[in-house]
Amino acid sequence: MYPDPKINESIKKVEAAREANMKLDPRRMTADEKDNLLKTFHPDYKEAQFTNLRIGPNKGDKVPMELAALLEAKSRLEGYSVDLTKPHFDTDVLIIGGGGAGCSAAIEADENGAKVLMVTKLRVGDANTMMAEGGIQAADKPNDSPAQHFLDAFGGGHFAAQKDLLYKLVNEAPEAIQWLSKLGVEFDKAPDGTMITTHGGGTSRKRMHAAKDYSGAEIMRTLRDEVINRGIQVIDYTAAVELIKDENGHCAGAVLMNMETKELMVARAKTVILATGGAGRLHYQGFPTSNHYGATADGLILGYRLGARLLYPDTLQYHPTGAAFPAQIYGALVTEKVRSVGAMLVNANGEVFMNPLETRDVSAASIIRECTERHNGVSTPDGYAVWLDTPMIELKHGEGTIEKRIPAMMRMFAKHGIDIRKEPILVYPTLHYQNGGLKITADGQTDIENLYAAGEVVGGIHGRNRLMGNSLLDIIVFGRNAGKEASEKAKSVTVGTLTLKHLEEFEKERKDARVESDKISPQLLPDYVRRENRGR
Ligand code: MEZ
Predict the structure, then answer these.
(1) Low-confidence residues of the chain, pLDDT below 50?
(2) How high is the pLDDT of residue 529?
(3) Which residues line ligand 1 (CB under 6 A)?
């Protein structure tokens, strides 16, 4: 039930047009139409929202203003003297981050016989992986191939993906699904035992494997259990606040901070894996986010200060369908699977204005155009939105489909009195994913020797736009890869004398570039303090 009479008037138009709309097969946009749409309406093209970095390995490059402020900020360690001579922890592989990539890395490093320490600023499993809904891609059906998967992802990412990384992603995908299945992930299956697969935006074959619409939670649950069952050492509520080098300039550990007591500790490690996830909680351009509470770009800051380059830090993903009503779930993910199983995007007049399975950047820009330039959005208490006509799903596929295929969506809206089987839902783009991040080689190593990275903190695997289901895939493929490579490398590493000299060099660079801000980073937690209450 929607309380607002104007919203209900619009619903009547959606209902009146539903039958005719269901027969439509809206054409895909041409490449030129997409380019023009993106340039005019996608947030990545709002030049005033970006700035050029003044310091560090990406000096001169364009990044979102909020990220620049953190990349150019002071170290949290300024004013502290940290004794590096008596480390509190000594390990082969230090993993920073307890999400899907971190856990996959930990499992493989443990499997390879390494001593592993995982630290996480919240709890293991508190991560964007847990929030992923619609599925994970893998070309493992007879009508599909990794080559086809590559073409879809390369085109969807505007031909900017690092080819060697994307090649690895798609070729190792079928094995990743097998690995997860063996660990205990319950993927949706047909009565004959074959995996049920669906389309996502920009896929030419049905290759999305899902566990209903809580695929990420199912994967995260399984990985977390495996980490715990193996007895891998995990320290919760402990953030990395700086990386440490040794006298050879190699990464050799991290300074850790207990999130509650603020106590500082030193972890010495032969190799380090950054698996800190994304940045949605920086709320670029004021967008709401579908991200987990901890998504504050910490890994980008830690790696950058050590001297690791970023790739495509100017490109973000706005998921086309964030919940736009009610306010309690504003920005929460409404999985793309809702469109995969048959719902169409419809404007305030009940008109279908785009093919529902365009790629994400194109879909988001198209919704923004509908609400801004074309004035065809539904007015909501928080702005504008379009309809996702969910009742179409059961009209197309029969009663019970919604409960069976997208039960989490049904529950999320039911809590607020909206029955998505009978009523459409209001959606608007929400900040969902960071396409850019730390540059890595195919063995998972950053520019800094012995510093590896995996998961959303990495840039370049997907180019300038990621397809649905390739992120759950990348945390598994590249998480495992980093765990294997870092643990293998650790066998031949002798750590030299630990140093934080790079922080002095960074501070000097700040001064020389006249960076005057007093901001400190990594941020660690979102900044939700009301401005008017500051200082009270
Ligand atoms: O890959 C994703 O971001 C994903 C599966 C999201 C979704 O729409 O469910």
Answers:
(1) 534-536
(2) 72
(3) 132-135, 333, 335-337, 468-469, 471
Q: Give the pLDDT score at 535.
A: 45
Catalytic center residues: 319, 339
Over residues 384-438, the pLDDT tens digits come to 999 999 999 999 999 999 999 999 999 999 999 999 999 999 999 999 999 999 9
How remote is the CA of residue 472 from the centroid of ligand 1, in Å? Answer: 8
Q: State the DSSP string of 57-104.
A: TTTT-EEEHHHHHHHTSEETTTT-----SS-SEEEEEEEE--SHHHHH
User: Hey, which residues does 72 pair with through a beta bridge?
Assistant: none
Q: Can you give the pLDDT at residue 534?
A: 46
CA of 31 to the centre of ligand 1 (A): 23
Distance 436 CA to ligand 1 centre (A): 17
Peptide bond into 288 cis (omega under 30): no
Q: How far apart, in whole angstroms, are the C-alpha atoms of residue 345 and residue 352?
A: 6
Local structure of residue 29 (DSSP, 8 states)? P
0.85 cut: is pTM over it? yes
